[in-house]
Amino acid sequence: MSFDLKALLDRVAAGELGPAEAAGHIAAEMRDQPVEDLGFARIDHQRAQRQGFPEVVLGLGKSPEQIAAIAARIVARGHTLLVTRADPAAYDAVRAAVPAAQYHDVARAITCRMHEVPAGRGTIVIAAAGTSDLPVAEEAAVTAEVMGNAVDRLFDVGVAGLHRLLREHHRLRSARVIVVVAGMEGALPSVVAGLVSVPVIAVPTSVGYGASFHGLAALLGMLNSCANGVSVVNIDNGFGAGCISSLINHLD
Amino acid sequence: MSFDLKALLDRVAAGELGPAEAAGHIAAEMRDQPVEDLGFARIDHQRAQRQGFPEVVLGLGKSPEQIAAIAARIVARGHTLLVTRADPAAYDAVRAAVPAAQYHDVARAITCRMHEVPAGRGTIVIAAAGTSDLPVAEEAAVTAEVMGNAVDRLFDVGVAGLHRLLREHHRLRSARVIVVVAGMEGALPSVVAGLVSVPVIAVPTSVGYGASFHGLAALLGMLNSCANGVSVVNIDNGFGAGCISSLINHLD
Amino acid sequence: MSFDLKALLDRVAAGELGPAEAAGHIAAEMRDQPVEDLGFARIDHQRAQRQGFPEVVLGLGKSPEQIAAIAARIVARGHTLLVTRADPAAYDAVRAAVPAAQYHDVARAITCRMHEVPAGRGTIVIAAAGTSDLPVAEEAAVTAEVMGNAVDRLFDVGVAGLHRLLREHHRLRSARVIVVVAGMEGALPSVVAGLVSVPVIAVPTSVGYGASFHGLAALLGMLNSCANGVSVVNIDNGFGAGCISSLINHLD
Amino acid sequence: MSFDLKALLDRVAAGELGPAEAAGHIAAEMRDQPVEDLGFARIDHQRAQRQGFPEVVLGLGKSPEQIAAIAARIVARGHTLLVTRADPAAYDAVRAAVPAAQYHDVARAITCRMHEVPAGRGTIVIAAAGTSDLPVAEEAAVTAEVMGNAVDRLFDVGVAGLHRLLREHHRLRSARVIVVVAGMEGALPSVVAGLVSVPVIAVPTSVGYGASFHGLAALLGMLNSCANGVSVVNIDNGFGAGCISSLINHLD
Amino acid sequence: MSFDLKALLDRVAAGELGPAEAAGHIAAEMRDQPVEDLGFARIDHQRAQRQGFPEVVLGLGKSPEQIAAIAARIVARGHTLLVTRADPAAYDAVRAAVPAAQYHDVARAITCRMHEVPAGRGTIVIAAAGTSDLPVAEEAAVTAEVMGNAVDRLFDVGVAGLHRLLREHHRLRSARVIVVVAGMEGALPSVVAGLVSVPVIAVPTSVGYGASFHGLAALLGMLNSCANGVSVVNIDNGFGAGCISSLINHLD
Amino acid sequence: MSFDLKALLDRVAAGELGPAEAAGHIAAEMRDQPVEDLGFARIDHQRAQRQGFPEVVLGLGKSPEQIAAIAARIVARGHTLLVTRADPAAYDAVRAAVPAAQYHDVARAITCRMHEVPAGRGTIVIAAAGTSDLPVAEEAAVTAEVMGNAVDRLFDVGVAGLHRLLREHHRLRSARVIVVVAGMEGALPSVVAGLVSVPVIAVPTSVGYGASFHGLAALLGMLNSCANGVSVVNIDNGFGAGCISSLINHLD
Amino acid sequence: MSFDLKALLDRVAAGELGPAEAAGHIAAEMRDQPVEDLGFARIDHQRAQRQGFPEVVLGLGKSPEQIAAIAARIVARGHTLLVTRADPAAYDAVRAAVPAAQYHDVARAITCRMHEVPAGRGTIVIAAAGTSDLPVAEEAAVTAEVMGNAVDRLFDVGVAGLHRLLREHHRLRSARVIVVVAGMEGALPSVVAGLVSVPVIAVPTSVGYGASFHGLAALLGMLNSCANGVSVVNIDNGFGAGCISSLINHLD
Amino acid sequence: MSFDLKALLDRVAAGELGPAEAAGHIAAEMRDQPVEDLGFARIDHQRAQRQGFPEVVLGLGKSPEQIAAIAARIVARGHTLLVTRADPAAYDAVRAAVPAAQYHDVARAITCRMHEVPAGRGTIVIAAAGTSDLPVAEEAAVTAEVMGNAVDRLFDVGVAGLHRLLREHHRLRSARVIVVVAGMEGALPSVVAGLVSVPVIAVPTSVGYGASFHGLAALLGMLNSCANGVSVVNIDNGFGAGCISSLINHLD
Fold first, then answer.
1. Closest Cα in chain B, distance from residue C159 (Å)
2. How do C177-182 and D177-182 pair as beta strands?
3. Which residues contact H203 (CB under 8 A, 6 or more apart)?
4. Cα distances (angstroms) measured from residue B232 to each of B235, B244, F248
């Protein structure tokens, strides 16, 4: 409870406020948090305060109209907007409501910066194993950037051609946190984590076919990494990786 | 390559060293890294330098004799020892070789501190959902402690009795990074991550029965967390969580 | 056997009925139950008597023509109609045969009330974790309503923003039975069940991506709930949850 | 918050209590709930009030000493004891601390009734498909009984010999709620639910071999039941079924 | 080897045939079996002799042109045609080549009877649990009929409405072999097999949703049947069930 | 209902029996079927009549005492005994109660023939792929033999050494029904079914390691057999296969 | 490192090159490998040298424009082109950039031979079980051919009609390495490997339905092959099999 | 058929042999192959001729007595013996029958060389990722050695410490075929295959815990390898890898 309970009680003690009224205020405060109810969604406008970034909208499973309505309310409060898994139709609907919104087509994300977010302390390297992993890697990159981080993209550095990775070794070494995106066997995070001493966030992708089982192979590979310092997010969850790496990069 | 290539070439230029000899030196340097080969294992004595902590021994699948031999070499170099998944027989073998070694029976870990490791910047909170999750939580705690971190243990705070968790809210808020250990449905990380704005490392445990499928339910639950800031390690991988949280906690 | 066997035998004893004829009657009664055979379906018109509500039609896997034919027969007997998993084409076909039929588009259900069903004793709260869970939650709500229950909808109260749920605590407390609908990690039922002492029917949804495996993660999470009082229905089975909660709510 | 906030504030207004002191009281109240912390466990002594029955101890994964310590504290408060998944060693430890405790060997449960629990309104029928399902069925029965319910056991009535079940039809009809326990193909709940109009709680068991995959076949069968009114708990979770059926049976 | 080896050798002994020539004949015979090679397929024209019915064409994964080409060759030899999993486009292509071919649209099968097949000895009952199972049940029925069997269709007799099944008891009793088709929980075969003493061929269907996992639940249920006399074929494999039941029905 | 309803009604008509009494008789008959209730088991003594063979006891999950009690009751009625999955301790208990009982140690089965069962019409060939499949194959063989069938054992004829199988081709051809038992890849049923035109009952075994996943690989292989005439029973279910093949072999 | 380190150092020794300059050369060499960075892809032009064949392009998940851009760069260097999983749209884009490119429609592959690749030593037999397996088999064949191997196609030789395979026995015997492509139960590799003494590369395909689970059944069958000499590639990975068989066939 | 058919027919033509007698000889030849039937096993003594190495005995699932009996017969024919998955009890039994037999305890294999097998052409490198993978790696090594190959062991070279592997690069380059053994994430084969241009046989091991699912993670990782030239054998199948690599190494 961030509101000033002590001050309130001071006023009761000072006779400025009746006890019943004070009890009402406390209850109201508890009930009156700035959650806006649209019927189909409850927007949490205090999230930026509580968690360092406003509520992010997952476009998946929402109609363009629902996305646009939520987006409009977020921007109306002066908060920065981030919509993930948004197709062009969703963007069209959002742009009608929020003309300044931008679309990142590879990342399938909509953003609209409304204010300066605090800058992260270092650089986040986002490494991707193959060309097909780019949409997920870009989702991570756009997320990290809109959250105030410097991002260094290092794409198509899969383990079957180690020299591609090793010659970019210095870029890995310059990172404060590394996001590694890979499908198929998902071996890249283990190799990267063996070369550095910073946290590695591994993102399995659904890239592959057959026994990749839509990303399961990469997910299991990453969870079983023999390297220290690897933690894993959901398959294709570029947003999650961008968000965690930003949290880490903003630690004092 | 950390050895001084430029100096070597200066000597060649100065005629102090023949070119064939120099080529030999370079090749030797590349081959001569401080990896000690025991036949069944190659100990990487430079890891502390490269990754901030000496090589850690996973006891699982190794004989007490193998563990003791590796432990002896690590300590002989003056490095701090950490053996995970070690049963009492392994400890007996290690103690014979390394009398100062200690056994943490809940965590099933052997440690021997040989030097001061750099201290982490903040506190790592390790929260566990139930009593049966303690061995994994303790493995995480012992790992984090031996790596130089202050640890705050917060046990038996599962989501079915929310008030147990909420009344420890201030302890969650005081953490720089939080490790959350839970079996069964694995819901605790989502709830915790919704209350804080620091990174949460989720550790599913194999606690449960039936459709927990040895931790699969908890693992999937954590990977699908609807909260931001959650990344996941392997089932029962307390060591991994301790290690990652230490890496994060040591970031400047 | 609900027909009057004793009366029949009285008539035999009274000589009003020959024994062979009586044997025929008994056999006929057993064979002659009011099941109507349409060739592709057998409609059970006695179900309302036996189970408290007429036969419900699962639209999935049936053609619009088949659905309309079954619907017409149910209404022709004066029974209330409920068709689930019905797309607009099915509704068009049904409306042609049953003009009074209504379509619930979020729930994808067709209803036609033909008589007053007995009212449930209390209120059924239907809680949903996110906006994308609404179709399943609405299917549960429409089902419960058409079966005579008061329904209180409580949507978008996922566990990552606990305060959204806690401030509606009084509504949870006012329920006689609670349906909880959630995808992704499926943690909401555990949290809700920890706050109340009435039965909780958990409905996993296929909302999510990657390692949600089309609702498997939520399903496993709910089956492994550490809270007491949670039982589970099939993934996306809003109808089932509405039906069970109605059965419970109608218990004297 | 059940403590009297209004009264407290009245006292502040009356000058009987300083505002700082009052703020301390409120915080204390929030922190001071009757949760007893044993280090390895937090016992929730208010649960009986909140949820109608004191905290139940899951023996699985706890040592006999831990179980006995928790049991002693529960009984010391005058609460009824129920320990599930308790082997004889656990019972020996508990009996030393709680001499009145009883052991139910088929159910593998320890109970100690300390007071009269409120009686359920009707009878709970517990049906089991085969002889091997008895431990789970008995766990459900002992749970329901210790929670104050009349239980009718109906064992070895699997679907391959329908007449065994049909001749007990009247007992099914007399139930207010039915627990159905079955392994292998798990078909019994569908058949039972088709015969009655009360809620059916289905418990899959790990009984079977080969493609039963430790209860998975029965679990999936029950989740896909084509009958209305079936909800499902975890594999082998007799306790859960007993608990839910008691909650339902205690509804006014 | 059905050709007359003894006769050949008689001719060698009689000097009518040189030994080299005879060796050539034997080798040729082995190579010259009536398998017709279309490049993309090898048609086995001797199958009718060897296995009682000509080669059956699985339409799945073949182009209409490939299906038509194979069909034409089979009919050209005077063999009865059966194509399964054939869509209307495949039928159009076949009809152009084989004008007498018929299409069974529910079963998605093409047939063309060219000769009288031997009649089975009894009746094959094909029971289906629900309306959505009809395509698979009809595939079984068409297959059994084209192979010379009398078929009795018994549809929509699922276990949740036992009386539907029990009143058709006499039809089950009149069968020589029974095919039972069911999706969802797949419980019907167990119930049927408990009522009769003839072989039951169980066909799981992919009917269902959520945790039916495209027929896996039904498949596992059937494999774990607690009734004697149930064997199982692949999910949706109506053809296989029709074929096996015909083999059994043709046994002397 | 096999009791004489017509005769009963004749007596009512003749005034020899009052109608109330008659109604009582009918109800009693329905309730009074010869199912013997041992508390933990209900023995179905009419099964021999209904299904051609008395009730078979699955030893798995029953105590030796339970098995012996059931066995004694079956033999006491003059029925032939078959207990499957019986270990030596179970046999000791049974032998004490039924001295004539025999133990088949490879098959892990107990039998006691009490009367002549009707002979099957032909021979059942039981083919097994490898030495490790013998326990399952012998369970099938013992089952088929005790049910009155001539059995021909054909062991260690796996597909990797085709000539082993092909040289026994004549034995396959002489069968009326064939049981094929195989672990690992489970390919033998496809090959066998391609050589004959009688039904093939495939039994996957849990023989293998790694990706055999305890028989899953063999099970899936058999379900996907490209050969006609193959149906499948549960993993390691030799009894089921013996039983079905006996049913088929007894068809007129 | 293939560049001449010794020569460089000779020049330093001879004073022809300054040490700083030499150090720069060495670093440059390490950084300057012929990897061409297109932003979305890094083309490895030295692969032909390192691995015997230029980089192969997996079309899956890449846009036609991306494929064409990569193809153009490969051909521009004089390297032979192979694109797999290419649809006609990709071919159109490639042909615009590389007019000499050819499309293999069954194999869905694009090739353009730019130079003579070294010839393999023997013949690669590519056997396929059924007509539906042809796309995968052709992908293997086109791959092997463009890599310089003689290929013998042996299609539609599934195990259910053994004679089809056995009469082509001599072709199997003439191979240096055999690729076996099969869906459904995937039994063909075991049978083939039992007939020959050369390596067999098994390719499971996703051909089948129901419990084939998109090729999982075939994959598991092949991994569990009881025959010696079988190794397995990913489901539908015709390219992989063609590539490995070429590597083997090129061994001296 | 290797017997002289032509010579036989010459004798018939010459009147030295009657045609009936000749037909008998041909049939006998087909039936009389040197397969020795022990009842529980059929030993194929011609395998050495057909497949280059005598029959190998898989100890798993066989009793020591069965293993010893088979071993004695193999050695009695003068063939080299290899028993895999043999525990010390099996060795004791074998040594009693075959005193010259040797036990390889890490590999759990029994061997007895009876004659010189043909030497492979090059060296087989067997690389293992970790110490716990040694039993599988040694099984591969012992198999390859007893089959006549030079083996180079390269152990504990996992991808998390790349320098351990890279400094042994020259040994990888010197191989004609490479076996790579790895558990956990199974990434080593991809990295190795990217460094060489010879075939790589990947062996997943069951080393690991949690989401390694007994080797499934490593298996899937290897099947999805993004590197060319990798084929895979069953989990823990060191024998299979040794055998295939020997086949390849013996190719001319």
1. 6
2. unpaired
3. H136, H137, H140, H179, H180, H181, H182, H232, H233, H236, H237, H238, H240, H241
4. 9, 10, 54
Nearby residues of E29 by Cβ (< 8 Å), 6 or more positions away: E1, E3
Q: Are strands F200-204 and F230-232 parallel, antiparallel or unpaired?
A: parallel
Q: E44 to chain F: nearest residue by CA? A: F194
Distance from the Cα of A207 to chain G's closest Cα (Å) equals: 7
Phi, psi dihedrals of residue A106, rounded to the nearest 5° = -65, -40
* Cα gap H189→B168, rounded to integer Å: 47
Contact at 8 Å (CB) between E131 and C38?
Answer: no
Instruction: State the Rg of chain C over Cα.
Output: 22
Q: Rounded to whole angstroms, how far apart are CA atoms E162 and B147?
A: 65
pLDDT at A4: 63
Read off the tokens for D165: 């079940």
Query: In the complex, which subunits touch D with 3 or more CB pairs below 8 angstroms?
Result: A, B, C, E, F
How far is Cα A225 from Cα B232, in angstroms, rounded to an integer? 12
User: Are the C-beta atoms of residues G29 and G5 closer than 8 Å to each other?
Assistant: no
**Closest Cβ–Cβ partner in F10, F15, F23 for C9:** F23
Give chain G positions within 8 Å (CB) of E222: none
- Angle at alpha carbon of residue F49, lines to F48 and F54, rounded to 5°: 5
CB pairs under 8 A between C and F: 35
Question: Residue G112: what are its φ and ψ, rounded to 5°?
Answer: -155, 105
- Residue in the structure block whose two tokens are 């096993």: H41
Q: Which residues of H touch F157 (CB under 8 A)?
A: 42
Region for E227 from its dihedrals, namely left if φ exceeds 0, alpha if ψ lies in -120 to 50, beta otherwise? beta
3-class secondary-structure state, position B37:
strand
Q: For residue B127, with 0-12 CB atoms within 10 Å meaning exposed, 13-18 middle and 19 or more buried, which class applies?
A: buried
Q: Give per-residue pLDDT as tens, A186-227.
A: 999 999 999 999 999 999 999 999 999 999 999 999 999 999
- The DSSP letter of residue H118 is P
Q: Is the pLDDT of residue C46 over 90?
A: no
DSSP F108: T
CA atoms within 13 A on the CB side of A172: 24
The neighbour count for residue F240, using CB atoms within 10 Å, is: 27
Please state which of the ranges A90-99, C144-153, D200-209, G68-77 shows the lowest mean pLDDT: G68-77
Q: What's the CA dihedral at E221, E224, E228, E234 to 10 degrees?
A: 60
**Chains touching chain F at 3 or more Cβ pairs under 8 angstroms?**
C, D, E, G, H
pTM over 0.90: no
Q: Beta strands of chain A (E only): which ranges? A: 35-37, 42-44, 57-58, 81-84, 102-104, 109-112, 123-128, 150-155, 177-182, 200-204, 230-232
E102-104: strand order across its sheet: E57-58, E81-84, E109-112, E102-104
Chain F's closest residue to C17, CA to CA, is F13
Question: Across the interface, which of F60, F219, F235 has its CB nearest the CB of D132?
Answer: F60
Q: What is residue D97's DSSP assignment?
A: H
The DSSP secondary structure of B88-149, one letter per residue, reads HHHHHHHHHH-TT-EEETTTTEEEE--SPPPPPSSEEEEEESSGGGHHHHHHHHHHHHHTT-
Kindly state the average pLDDT of the residues D51-70: 88
Q: Residue D155 and residue F39: Cβ atoms within 8 Å?
A: yes
Residue of chain B nearest A194, judged by CA positions: B51
Phi, psi of A181 (to 5 degrees): -110, 125
Nearest CA distance, B174 vs chain H (angstrom): 31
Do residue D224 and residue E216 have CB atoms under 8 angstroms apart?
no
CA atoms within 13 A on the CB side of A192: 37
All residue ranges of chain H with pLDDT < 50 are 1-2, 30-33
